[in-house]
Amino acid sequence: METTKNNQVNSIVSTTTRPTIFIDASTLQSILTYKTLITHFQNTLPSASSTIQSPIRHTHQTSPSSSLLLMPSWSHSSSSSSSLPYIGVKLVTHHPLNSSLNLPSIHATYLLFNSLTGQTLASIDGTQLTLVRTACVSALASQYLSQQDSKVLIMVGAGSLAPHLIKAHLTIRPSLKRVIVWNRTIEKARMLVDKILMEGGYGYEEGVSFESNENLEEVVGIGDIVSCATNSEVALVKGVRLKEGAHLDLVGSFKETMKECDDEAIRRGRVFVDNEGAVVEAGELVGAFERGVIKRDQIEGTLVELIRGGGGGGGGGKIGRRNSKEITVFKSVGSGVVDLLSAQLVYETYINK
Predict the structure, then answer these.
(1) Other Cβ atoms within 10 Å of 292 Cβ, number
(2) CA distance linking residue 214 with residue 186, whole number of Å
(3) What is the side-by-side strand order in the sheet with 178-182?
(4) Does residue 193 contact residue 181 with C-beta atoms inside 8 Å?
(5) What sections of 236-318 are H helices per DSSP?
(6) More reliable by pLDDT, 239 or 100
(7) How far, in whole angstroms, is CA 96 from its chain's centroid?
(8) How confident is the model at residue 2 (pLDDT cuts 50, 70, 90)?
(9) Helix orientation angle between 126-145 and 34-51, rounded to the nearest 10 degrees
(10) Is 53 helix (H, G, I), strand (E, B) or coil?
(11) What is the average per-residue pLDDT within 23-47?
(12) What average pLDDT does the segment 159-169 reach?
């Protein structure tokens, strides 16, 4: 007993004597892969969801067009033997007008603390962390909800999140052979495709084709997976255009005034969410509830429930895709839980490398 106690004390001392680490975007990119983070979420989310306290995000309007978001989270387990002895908070600024300046609309920093001592362990580039974890959450949901033989991915939006969503979906669905990018400004869609072809690593070497298209209504109808990452306040994806068996991945909206699809898409699909926050934050869902399109209790389940059920409904979880004809919808708004789990993996990978 005394030896165990001493080991725990030594572990705390070792951590508290280590200087604060700064992990920038390039370092994070070099140590974190989409496959690794997807697997980490799959293995840890079911248990972590009950041990991590994560209040609904704080959102403050800093100007008519910009906002500040704070997303704290911490583990209930505070013993030194805990596998998750952390406190974390993400600070995010959202400036959608930055697109006119050729700058990202979102900037973020993630601070990780030791939950036993309160010491700052790491400052992590929160923008890169958010981009990768958001894409991996979508891809993990797609593993349960999209068709295994999906061939065509429609990427709605060509912002900073788009290439990460493309890579994450390709990771989970290697059957994809065609990626079509749409953006309000077609030139941005073309630029993203050019960037993808220049950088490599997206799978085109294995036969995946990439193209841009300016007619969204036309291409949505051929998408096996339609992934949306925009700041839109008007419906972009029309539900009537979705093909049988399609999977609609909605990432962009995080407040009631934003939406990326219309009511028909919600009505036609079996709707899942990343967490309960989506039913009070996402404009697509809040609006659909208000207009009587669906009721809140018609939301099929959360990502954690999909994982617990293995997509088949066992283990107290929820059934994922049931057949090749149904339309599935996944709406994510993000949470402090996945932020903390992502920061954990990044930090522990960094110090153990």
Answers:
(1) 8
(2) 6
(3) 209-212, 178-182, 152-156, 225-228, 247-250, 327-331, 269-273, 301-302
(4) yes
(5) 263-268, 278-281, 283-290, 303-309
(6) 239
(7) 19
(8) very low
(9) 90
(10) strand
(11) 95
(12) 95
Q: How far apart are CA 137 and CA 143, in angstroms?
A: 10
Using alpha carbons, list the distances in angstroms from residue 125 to 21, 92, 251. Answer: 11, 11, 20
The tokens for 153 are 């991915």
Identity of the residue numbered 196 = I
Chain mean pLDDT for the chain: 89
Beta strands 106-114 and 86-94: pairing type?
antiparallel
* Bridge partners, residue 212, by sequence: 181
Q: Which of residues 10 and 257 earns the better pLDDT score? A: 257
Structure pTM?
0.88
* pLDDT, tens only, 196-206: 988 876 765 67
Side chain identity, residue 157? G
Alpha helices in the chain (DSSP H): 2-16, 25-31, 34-51, 126-145, 162-172, 186-199, 216-220, 263-268, 278-281, 283-290, 303-309, 336-352
Read off the pLDDT of each residue in 95-115 and give the average, rounded to a whole number.
90
| pLDDT of 261 higher than 90 | yes
Q: Using CB atoms within 10 Å of the CB of residue 5, give its burial: 0 to 12 exposed, 13 to 18 middle, 19+ buried.
A: exposed
Asked if pLDDT for residue 5 goes beyond 70, the answer is: no
Residue partners of 127: CB distance under 8 A and separation at least 6:
25, 104, 106, 107, 108, 160
Three-class SS of residue 327? Answer: strand
Triad 250, 280, 146: Cα angle to 5°: 25
> Which residue has 């669906």 as its token pair?
294
Residue type, 9: V
Q: Are 108 and 90 in contact (CB under 8 A)?
A: yes
Q: Pairing state of beta strands 58-63 and 178-182?
A: unpaired
